[in-house]
């Protein structure tokens, strides 16, 4: 499935690299764990091999998919209902938890569009989700293109509707 050295994405954590595979003896059962390091957050996780399928762990996108990402960052889906106090926060959190870079791009497109329509900026939850989505995509872009965090965020900002950070 995955091997040491693979660049992967873990939902809600972003992109990282499989640094090792370790075998642990847990209550008499030998279990294999993937050791994944997330450089943007400086976090290391151990993920059990038998739960990888359900965890949503996936390989990073190919460079050929960057144009699709750029389009997704610009494409805002028109909201169906009129704005409520916090209309998108749960929906955006759900999208971010899928681990899909295109879902994260959708969050950015929708929130940057909403931010441009509001005089007083986004609600706190929306700002948090916008920042999470940007960090999630930036972490993957850093590994896909071998670029810095600043360059990745620049790509996101240049391709989203709003030029805000």
UniProtKB/TrEMBL annotation:
Residues 1-112 form the CarD-like/TRCF RNAP-interacting domain. GO terms for biological process: rRNA transcription. InterPro entries: CarD-like/TRCF_RID, CarD-like/TRCF_RID_sf, CarD-like_C, CarD-like_regulator, CarD_C. It comes from the Bacteria. Pfam families: CarD_C, CarD_TRCF_RID. This is Transcriptional regulator. The lineage of its organism: Bacteria, Bacillati, Bacillota, Bacilli, Bacillales.
